[in-house]
């Protein structure tokens, strides 16, 4: 099969189970983000793919070839780490040339390739500069160019953008994605930043405690999270406990009409803030009080207390120009916006 395939891969460090039975396939040419909280095993999984760590069990294959017994330097991968690991005493050009030189390429070939790579990462004409003369974003591009110098079969990046400030980081997310699409290279990025994962990936893999919680295209995962952990980790989620009643399901503060739950059964649901409608007065199905208003520019977040529940609504500021803490409001949650979790996931 073309692409990367992991079959039941586990890694233990003594009594710590860092990665626990992970199976996934990354089709050739796709961009996948490994996303999860600190300590969930993303870096360990990436290091096993790279050959920097041996799996305790399981198989890793690239384009049908088993990688387990192939050492890191023979796997034909390009890697970028958070630290970038550039050589500060070498020039930009020498840094990019390094992997080509150790493979014995001729000087003429190397010179042409370095220029081509610098053009590719939009840094033309800086080959002779010192690494120390570059900005954070420029160093990032040099590290990417060096990793891609030998046209690897797989491109691995571990928290590549986390050292950059917010604005530059967003710009680099777009650049990295465009570059990947242009080259069509299979790419895996480790990140703990859900916005980064949402904006760059073909597919996101959410991990927790060494296991995959869900693998799906970003918008599918956002709309249909597999469990409360994924709902809460990817974007904001209102997680509510509901009980099935005649005509819908109720929480402690009111009713979600037409939500299909067997009467008397209790389930956890997730609803996104932008799907929660807020109106003045107490005529609606769920009565609530405004506890906090967060102005975000393009959107406004209205934090609500409804019975024992806390609910966040996100909307346009124009729709709620006079919203104040302490206002009594009514909340409507459409049944079709609710994701109802299975019993064991609640
Ligand atoms: P972060 O985002 O903080 O880098 P992560 O999701 O990448 O976290 P890992 O670094 O893969 O997580 O770590 C997973 C688990 O394995 C953690 O409990 C960590 O302490 C443990 N671990 C990782 N490397 C080693 C090691 N070399 N020796 C012992 N335990 C380790």
TrEMBL record:
Coiled coil region boundaries: none
Record flagged with keyword Cytoplasm: no
Domain ABC transporter per the UniProt entry, residue ranges: 4-234
Gene3D superfamilies xrefs: 2.40.50.100, Nucleic acid-binding proteins, P-loop containing nucleotide triphosphate hydrolases
Molecular function GO terms recorded: ATP binding
InterPro entries on file: AAA+_ATPase, ABC_SmlMolc_Importer, ABC_transporter-like_ATP-bd, ABC_transporter-like_CS, Mo/tungstate-bd_C_term_dom, NA-bd_OB-fold, P-loop_NTPase, Transp-assoc_OB_typ2
Keywords: ATP-binding, Nucleotide-binding, Transport
Signal peptide: none
PANTHER family: SPERMIDINE/PUTRESCINE IMPORT ATP-BINDING PROTEIN POTA, SPERMIDINE_PUTRESCINE IMPORT ATP-BINDING PROTEIN POTA
Family recorded in the similarity comment: Belongs to the ABC transporter superfamily.
Protein name: ABC transporter ATP-binding protein
């Amino acid at each position: 099969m073309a692409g990367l395939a992991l079959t039941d891969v586990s890694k233990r460090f003594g009594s710590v189970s860092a990665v626990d039975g992970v199976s996934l396939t990354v089709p050739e040419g796709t961009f996948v983000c490994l996303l999860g909280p600190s300590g969930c095993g993303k870096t360990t999984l990436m290091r096993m793919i790279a050959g920097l760590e041996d799996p305790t069990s399981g198989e890793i294959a690239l384009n049908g070839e088993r990688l387990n017994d192939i050492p890191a330097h023979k796997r034909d991968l390009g890697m970028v780490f958070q630290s970038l690991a550039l050589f500060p005493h070498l020039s930009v050009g020498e840094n990019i040339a390094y992997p080509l030189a150790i493979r014995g390429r001729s000087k003429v070939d190397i010179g042409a390739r370095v220029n081509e790579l610098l053009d590719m990462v939009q840094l033309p004409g800086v080959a002779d500069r010192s690494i120390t003369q570059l900005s954070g974003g420029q160093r990032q591009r040099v590290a990417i160019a060096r990793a891609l110098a030998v046209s690897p079969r797989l491109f691995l990046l571990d928290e590549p953008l986390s050292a950059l400030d917010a604005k530059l980081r967003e710009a680099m997310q777009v650049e990295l994605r465009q570059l990947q699409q242009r080259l069509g290279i299979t790419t895996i990025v480790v990140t703990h930043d859900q916005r980064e994962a949402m904006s760059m990936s073909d597919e996101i893999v959410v991990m927790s405690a060494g296991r995959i919680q869900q693998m799906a295209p970003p918008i599918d995962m956002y709309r249909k999270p597999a469990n409360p952990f994924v709902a809460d980790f990817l974007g904001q989620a209102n997680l509510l406990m509901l009980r099935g009643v005649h005509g819908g399901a109720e929480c402690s503060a009111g009713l979600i009409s037409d939500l299909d739950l067997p009467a008397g059964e209790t389930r956890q649901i997730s609803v996104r803030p932008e799907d929660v409608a807020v109106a003045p007065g107490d005529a609606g199905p769920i009565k609530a009080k405004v506890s906090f208003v967060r102005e975000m520019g393009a959107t406004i977040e209205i934090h609500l207390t409804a019975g024992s529940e806390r609910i966040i609504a996100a909307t346009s500021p124009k729709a709620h120009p006079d919203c104040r803490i302490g206002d009594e409001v009514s909340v409507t949650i459409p049944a079709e916006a609710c994701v109802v979790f299975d019993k064991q996931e609640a």
